[in-house]
Amino acid sequence: MRRLSVLVCLLALTACAPAPEAPAPQEPKDTGGVDWAIAIHGGAGVRHSRVPPEAEAAYKEGLRRALELGRNMLEEGASSLDVVESVLATLEDDPLFNAGKGAVFTNEGTHEMDAAIMDGRDQNCGSISGVKTIRNPIHLARKVMDESRHVFLMGSGAETFAAEQGLEIVDPEYFFVQRRYDQWQRVVEKERNADAEKSGKSAGRPEGKLGTVGAVVLDRHGNLAAGNSTGGMTNKRFGRVGDVPVIGAGTYASNRSAAVACTGFGEQFIRNTVARDVAALVEFGGLDLEAAARKLIFERLDEGDGGLVAVDSRGNMTLTFNSEGMFRGAADSSGRFEVGIWADGE
Ligand code: ASP
């Protein structure tokens, strides 16, 4: 009898128990000694043989310009999301980088761009893929996050949404850059008889065909954000989409752990869910950001696959890669301000 009444009580309690509470929003954490921090990348497909020393200065200038914009905005108290979006739009407008103007050519001679942005406060995010006429794909990713009920739009639907949102639509000709055209022609020639039909991991890394721009930011309010934008892979076919707009693969942000933006052989970053794994190792694995990034880049990926930039909720940053170089830059409120390309730091 006693057992029965306990059971009845328990059932009554369960029935009256309040519905499970929604998880509390992730409070910004104490940022230690740094008020704000920003790291950017401009792609890890860079080779010494393809960037003559005289071109290095131009790449570094492009990185510096974007980083300066980020630094100025952060000093004035801008949000991490606004900084990621503005810095990436600047890099998209720079024809040197494979995003926006300067995006690589597809097999059809077009440009198909992917982008993503993510808010570390609540994991809200916006991704787009395969857009051909949006001047700044990162603006569209932000609109998807803020103004739609979805997180990922593709192709013509994404473009219709962009027009509805009043974003700048350009003629596809806008994206033409002679250097990219010549690069595409070289790749077409090389692949004519090569192993283009190989599939899966055996297809190998697409040497010299990649590039992306990305940014991760901790703002003065203690909030993290990450974003990436890319033209993808030169001569890509069949609507190929890389890791950039795949949340958790190329892009991820959580105030609980880190903001991560990856660059490199996208198929490998998707297979290994790199961005989320780095954050998860920080959140659940007890690793510091540097150790988490190195684990993925050096123990999970293959040498030459690429790299990432990441910042944690205390403003620690890592710019880690296993390729010959990665266009990159970092700045924070302690006065750090640097750009680099090669593994030796230069
Ligand atoms: N990850 C990009 C892609 O696979 C390219 C890159 O970052 O270089 O589309």
Radius of gyration: 21 Å
* Fraction of residues in helix: 25-40%
Uncertain stretches: 6-25, 27-31
Largest sheet: 8 strands, mixed
Domain count, please report it.
Answer: 1
Helix and strand string, N-terminal first?
A: HEHHEEHEHHEEEEHHHEEEE
- Terminal-residue CA separation: 79 Å
CATH class: Alpha Beta
How many helical elements? 9
CATH architecture: 4-Layer Sandwich
What is the arithmetic mean of pLDDT?
90
Specify the structural class: alpha+beta
Task: Give me the secondary-structure topology.
Elements: H1 2-16, E1 37-41, H2 53-75, H3 80-93, E2 113-119, E3 125-131, H4 137-147, E4 152-154, H5 155-164, H6 178-191, E5 213-218, E6 224-230, E7 251-253, E8 258-264, H7 266-271, H8 274-283, H9 289-300, E9 306-312, E10 317-321, E11 325-332, E12 337-342
Parallel strand pairs: 3-4
Antiparallel strand pairs: 1-5, 1-11, 2-3, 2-6, 5-6, 7-8, 8-9, 9-10, 11-12
Descriptive tags:
8-stranded mixed sheet, 9 helices, Glutamine Phosphoribosylpyrophosphate, subunit 1, domain 1, 4-stranded antiparallel sheet, alpha+beta, binds aspartic acid, 346 residues, single chain
Question: Would you kindly provide a written description of the structure presented here, covering whatever features stand out?
Answer:
- There is one protein chain.
- With 346 residues, this protein is an alpha+beta fold.
- The protein has one domain: 4-Layer Sandwich (Glutamine Phosphoribosylpyrophosphate, subunit 1, domain 1), CATH 3.60.20.30.
- 33% of the residues lie in helices and 21% in strands.
- The protein is built from nine helices and twelve strands.
- An eight-stranded mixed beta sheet has the order 4-3-2-6-5-1-11-12. The protein has a four-stranded antiparallel beta sheet with strand order 7-8-9-10.
- A hairpin with a 5-residue loop joins strand 2 and strand 3.
- Helix 2 packs antiparallel against helix 3 and helix 3 runs antiparallel to helix 4.
- About 7% of the residues have low confidence.
- The structure holds aspartic acid.
- Aspartic acid (ASP) binds next to strand 8.
